[in-house]
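Table S7 (text form). Paired inputs.
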Amino acid sequence: MCVRGRALMLREHTQSESSLVWIPSATGVCQSDAKGDDFPSCTAFTGCTAFTSCTACTMTRQCKHGIFKEFLAEFLGTFVLVLFGCGAVAQTVLSRNTLGENLTIHIGFATGLTMGVYVSGGVSGGHLNPAVSLAMVLLGKLKFYKFPVYVLAQFLGAFAGAAAVFGLYYDAFMDFTSGILSVTGINATAHIFASYPGRHLSIINGIIDQVVGTGMLVLCILAITDGKNIGAPHGVEPLSVGLALLAISVSMGLNCGYPINPARDLGPRVFTFVAGWGMEVFSTANYWWWIPVAGPMGGGVAGALIYFLFVKMHHSHAEKPHEELEEEEEEEDEEEDDNSLKDKDQLFSQTVNERPFESDFDGVFSKNYDLYDNLADKC
């Protein structure tokens, strides 16, 4: 806890009047200025043992605001997603399918999403997708003022991930394209970073594709994280989300390659514009670029609404998660078994009590013994 009195008492331990005082405690450290005035917030940190400012404490001070930590987590998680996903596409395309195929790309994006959620999930929830963040806002799971921060982090993370892939395979890009970065044609490489529609795809069908695909992704995420549904075991949620994306990729990738993520598509697309592919990345295919941005946002809303109407709103406040209900049912079954055993014991005891006493059998046994003796004498 932040205690101003402790800051005043420990001020004499500082080396200069301008240095910061860090007060370790069981729950964290409190920052105080040289005058002993506490800063408005405390940050949990247990690695600082000195009462003077240190590097670790400085880093803690920089990250003392929760929204900034969430920004960094979303940035890094989306970076991981795009690095693995677009990296898989680059390896497949630049090797001319000798070191990869469509399944390679699907697995790359699915595992990239899984690892990205593992990286960021404990801090920000691991949205990595503006459509998911919007769904969480509508369901009251994310405060509205955080939404633009999340979207900005996701966009920048995707941009950085695309830049990392380009830097990683720069020589391969130059060899594949002979130094000419093109959007269309036999040596096109822009589709490594962003989605482009198939020749058969119309604008309307493209919008439907993005709404359905993103809606299914959001619906599955809500089911996986719903504590009153079956859900997923703790720590397995990212893997389950990755499997949901894998299912979408192998079933809905024909039209335009399942972008279903505005940040994942727009961030790398902007990078290609900056890196040398030119304005054609926005103008090609009748200005296709806005569909993978607007479509997923509508799909996220639709997925959240469908899950709420069909599942979530039917949870009672007193209802418990599925696993707890199963445990209660097992306990009830055990109690019933115990009661049945008790009933059997009582019935057995009553039967025994109703039987004649040994004294009642004495006369019968003695008569039988006399009969046997008489038969023996005759023989």
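Next pair, protein 2 of 2.
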Amino acid sequence: MHKYFQLIWTAIKAKPRQFILAILVVFIFPLFIKLYTYFDHENKYDKVGLNTFDFTSKSFNKTKKLPDFIRNDKFRKVFKWINFQQIENYKFEFQHNFPKCPLCKYQIQSNPNAPKRDDSYDISLSFLMGNISGVVPYIQTLRSTGSKAQIVIFVDDETGETIYLKTGSFMKDCGVHIINIGNIPKNNNCRYFVLNYVKYAASLLFLQTHPFFDRVLVTDLSDVIFQGNPFLAVFPNNETFISSPEYENNGIQTSHWYEEETEIEILKMLTEIRKDVSFHSFRRKESYYNSGVFLTTYHLAVSHFFNVFDLLNDITHSQWDRLEELNEKLEETNVNIYAINTYLKKNNSITVLNDGLNNELFLLTGRQYEKGQQFPNFKYKGNYVLLFHLVHLDKEYCNSISQKCSPIFDFTPYYHC
């Protein structure tokens, strides 16, 4: 051993510069790179990894591990097809420039007192299954408003392949993250509409494991269009939650709760679970919100998703059986309504806004508005609408979109009109 040290020392004395260089290359430089990568990734606004935009890759859930926030055994069984690992381990990379994204040509609308803010760290979250009509106009009009917000769409494997085959590099060019979450079973022996909860499960896990965002827009895809940038909506404070009640009277005492016996049964069930308000009191005083769109801050979005799962986790087996019998397509809507009214509106530190201070988010159902308006100049109560939800219910408005934002792909239906 002593002889080996003598040989090494002789080599060092003969060529000290070469020896030091070798030490730097073999040991010091790799250590520096590892430290730089670690601290670079500690910054929440830096890359988390490289997004390869592999739209065609199948997603396989080998471990079948479900998130801890899904505790109800019935829902755990229903959601076992979802590849939660794919969501948790998704290597997200922020994107701020989209030179190849084909934009529409129209006057971008805004309202007085709209804040000047960078929306690069805001995010739009959506879930898509099956029909992709309206998806391209959704993305194209959002990017045409100048929004640099991040866009994430959760899809089942089949829908992901359809998007790739029909739109090519469009999603990548416009900075859209398509996350394949699994292959929906053809027959899962459960009511079909339970799939509406997938957007809550996928969005919550994604936000938990990717805590990098400011504002969060959770939205339907096929029936939403943008006249302006919704992320520039006025927030009176950092505890703001914007949703759209159905009907002019702020959604209170709406026809849903008087005409649909199945929805009434669901609300009765929710008041049974919580026991903090009577059914009749809730039905008389609280608002009926559409669950298709809401805009809020990162931490309130996470809180709202947790509140929804707190309700779902407490559903008993007998209540589950009742839901199976009802098979109400608006079941998820009513759970969302209950969570907003019970947890958010009753918290004095949280501001729940109907449509936004300047009606930035617009929902067509039950509203009194001037007929015959066309894209992108639709106004409601004197304000330009930035996000228009349920466009298909106004055929004239919906058909006018193609005049300013003509199709760039040849498939039908392209618009959801």
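The two ends are 83 Å apart (CA to CA).
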